[in-house]
Amino acid sequence: MLVLVLDSATPAVTAAVVEVGEPGVGDPGVVVRAGRSAVDARAHGELLAPQVDSVLREIGARPRDLAAIVAGLGPGPFTGLRVGLVTAAGMGQALDIPTYGVCSLDALGWSAARVNGPGRAAPGKVLAATDARRREIYWAVYADRVRVTEPQVGRPVDVAAAVARMGVLSAIGEGAHKYAAVLPLALLDEPRYPTAEALAALAAERVRAGRPGERLTPLYLRRPDAVAAAGRKPVLQA
Amino acid sequence: MADEPLVLGIETSCDETGVGVVRGHTLLADALASSVDEHARFGGVVPEVASRAHLEAIVPTMRRALDEAGVTLADVDAIAVTAGPGLAGALLVGVAAAKGYAVAAEKPIYGVNHLAAHVAVDRLEHGPLPEPAIALLVSGGHSSLLLVDDLAGGVQPLGATIDDAAGEAFDKVARLLGLPFPGGPPIDRAAREGEPDAIGFPRGLTAPKDLAAHRFDFSFSGLKTAVARWVEARERAGEPVPVPDVAASFQEAVCDVLTAKAIDACRAHGIGTLVIGGGVAANSRLRALAEDRCAKHGITVRVPRPKLCTDNGAMVAALGSHLVAAGVAPSRLDLPADSAMPLTVVSV
Question: What is the pLDDT of residues A43-77, one digit of tens each?
């Protein structure tokens, strides 16, 4: 089954067409047929749709050949994150195919176990972190691909204290790299951003089972910046 | 006619999520979801709140529009979307959605100018717009006078507000009178019980010295402050504030300047058609005064019904349909949302 995978939760904007087949031992059963990823935090809106168009063309597929769409739900900077989700939702509606959401940090958690070799145990607990701007990171902790904390947003120094208490040894993701000086963890070099393979693998079971499509609700983790209207300021001199 | 272009329009430049469907000059659907109630307690539109609401609303609004029009995405000839001007994050939701629909349905996409769409929507109500025409666009974000030579090719800005937009002045005055947000409808209602000449509020940029440099520009900031000073002076003196008179007099000052300058623009350019659009065009006094004054000068005034004056998807579809019929090339898939899109650009 051909599945379109989109993620725009980090400075990387990613589109890929993935073949989802049957899994084997140490094999998630997903093959990336064509993928594009560009790192430009300010151009998600410009980059994503041409990427989708180009991955489909590369394998000679039409949009109607897609069986499902998988999208990274974040957490991530809001404006860019919405680009991926609304593109996925619109395409899903237009094609009348299901959409499935995956926490973008989970993709990094999945990759952390993967980069140590299929079938090999992950090196204890792993921190997955992406840049949340404002000197904060989005983060979650994984034990052998299973998320053991809720996705959160916080200051690197506070995250360092939290993961120390949890016995986390290593870290993955651009957020971990950016704040390596504050996070005393062994850094996994790649991937820095959620990969299409990981996102597809995390949704593959739902895709194969033909589960009902999901509404793609972003993991914002922060409220909008807005303050209720204050009393009016006087214009006359006292 | 079946061979006229069938175009879908998406609008998300501010707090309204709109999807409209138009065939030629015929409105087939105009579905709208508004986040206005979510902004009320902030006294104005909060961009991030609007963006979040657009993301939630776009799919169901699209569903309603297609159902209402009785068409599918496969039937449409093109998808038009507001590319600007407007709130950057809000625009981006609509543009990205439109691209998703366009890629999936393999349709051309037109990224269009929101203000030109406010002009184009009148075609749905009054048929083709005679060109050249003068357009007065007044909303919470804009107050502009335009010379429309060729709506498909570009419009020429004649003037604009140098400070607050007219709709913004309505919001601010409503707030100081204790009326709800958005301020346009409650002021319009309150004004019906008041005297428009009860208080002589200033008419911005109408003095001879201002007209030299700002003949077709507007200013509403001084008016807003004058209303605030008048109201505060009453309150300090312990006197009640006659809300209907303040509302009527304020509204009269705004409508007086808007119509006077619009008619001056028509006469200066020898143009016999004035089209008014934007949310403030829903104001009953502006409509009545424009009709009175235009009639006296032999100018035909065209104002769409209020629902088409405020932001909606049909206006975007109306402009898109005009562009398709005029043979304008579609936009590229990498078209950006442009919060400051200039008026001279009708489609990108």
Answer: 999 999 999 999 999 999 999 999 999 999 999 99
Q: Which helix (H) or strand (E) holds B295?
A: helix B284-296
ipTM comes to: 0.95
Is A236 close to B236, i.e. CB distance below 8 A? yes
What's the pLDDT tens digit per position in B37-86? 889 888 889 999 999 999 999 999 999 999 999 999 999 999 999 999 99
Exposure string for B1-21, b = 16+ CB within 10 A, e = fewer: eeeebbbbbbbbbbbbbbbbb
Q: Do B285 and B172 belong to one domain?
A: yes
> Do B114 and B263 fall within a single domain?
no
* B61/B104 same-domain check: yes
Interchain proximity A232–B175, CB inside 8 Å: yes
B43 — contact with chain A (CB < 8 Å)?
A: yes
Nearest to A224 among B49, B97, B100 (CB): B49
Beta carbons of B232 and A229 less than 8 Å apart: no
Distance from CA of B71 to the nearest CA of A (A): 12
Looking at the structure, do residues B26 and B77 belong to the same domain, yes or no?
yes
> CB distance A88–B100 less than 8 Å?
yes
Residues of B in contact with A228 (CB under 8 A): 41-43
pLDDT tens-digit map of B99-156? 999 999 999 999 999 999 999 999 999 999 999 999 999 998 899 999 999 999 889 9
Secondary structure of residue B118 in the 3-state scheme? helix
**Nearest residue on chain A to B60, judged by CA atoms?**
A93
Total domains in chain B come to 2
Q: What is the pTM of this model?
A: 0.94
Residues 68-107 of B with CB under 8 A from A: 73, 88-89, 92-93, 95-106
For B17, the domain range is 6-121+312-325
C-alpha span between A210 and B274 (Å, rounded): 56
